[in-house]
Amino acid sequence: MTKNMLSYTGGGLIGLIILILDLIVIFEVINSTRSIQGKIGWSLLVFFFPVVGIIIYFLFSNRAEYNAHYEAIA
């Protein structure tokens, strides 16, 4: 493989990771107990600004309050 091919592979891998994280966040938002407006707002933020949206969601979304129905695996 040439150096140029490796740079394309690395970019594709990073893009795939961001896509997977976006899908996880959107799935978590849809299954939360938030209001419809909250769900739409968070989903649009993550959709239009994928990297920044994920960071903002994990920092400011108060996930524990809205996902209280999850149980610990033990």
TrEMBL record:
Alphabetized UniProt keyword annotations: Cell membrane, Membrane, Transmembrane, Transmembrane helix
Location(s), subcellular: Cell membrane
Membrane topology: Multi-pass membrane protein
Protein's UniProt keywords contain Transmembrane: yes
Limits of the Cardiolipin synthase N-terminal domain: 20-61
Residue spans crossing the bilayer: 6-30, 42-60
Keyword set includes Cytoplasm: no
Any Pfam family matching the protein: PLDc_N
One of the record's GO cellular component terms: plasma membrane
InterPro entries in the cross-refs: CLS_N
Name of the molecule in the record: Cardiolipin synthase N-terminal domain-containing protein
Organism: Lichtheimia ramosa
